[in-house]
Amino acid sequence: MAQSKNQFYLRRLHSLLGVIPLGAFLLVHLMVNHQATQGVEAFNKAAHFMESLPFLYALEIIMIYIPILYHAVYGVHIAFTASQNIGHYSYMRNWLFLLQRASGLLTFVFIMIHLWQTRIQKFFGQEVNFDMVHQIVSNPAWLIFYIVCIIAVVFHFSNGLWSFLVTWGFLQSPKSQRVFTWISLIVFVIVSYIGVSAILAFV
């Protein structure tokens, strides 16, 4: 009983962190990247503003890295131990549940690579700017990898909104769950467009 109760709270925390702060950070990050569609200077200005925020490293550790670490580790645990909810949800929802786990694993790999290519390189004296991203995605293989992973990350977030609202009791009726499934897919399409158009602007 105690273990079930702990799992209940751990899942709630996992779901919450996926939306706040990580989901919010994802949207801000994509909007900053989308400034690249307005040109080199527009992106560099937006990136410089984010880099100049007070207490940046403390904010990143508390609001991004620690939540990512917990969400990723517990998410991997869920991915390898959870079973599909056959009989509880629709056929479509079960496929989305499977894709949620797969996109979560890909998101975890992508974040590690992306951090190495951007944030960690900053410690070696390389400035985070338009040219840094351009050098990465000018390689067609990396460009394809980034596009696929951005779509996976956005799907994980958008579909995760549904899970968050169900887990926290906001979507209780089957009808509300069906309606929000389509709302989350609309969010996925819109945010994916923002993310993919942003990365293509760096080419």
Automatic annotation (TrEMBL):
The keyword Ligase does not apply. The keyword NAD does not apply. SUPFAM superfamilies: Fumarate reductase respiratory complex transmembrane subunits. InterPro entries: Cytochrome_b-558, SQR/QFR_C/D, Succ_DH_cyt_b558_Firmicute, SuccDH_FuR_B_TM-su. One of its GO terms (cellular component) is membrane. The chain crosses the membrane at residues 12-32, 52-74, 95-116, 141-167, 179-202. Heme binds at H29, H71, H114, H156. This is Succinate dehydrogenase. It comes from Staphylococcus coagulans.
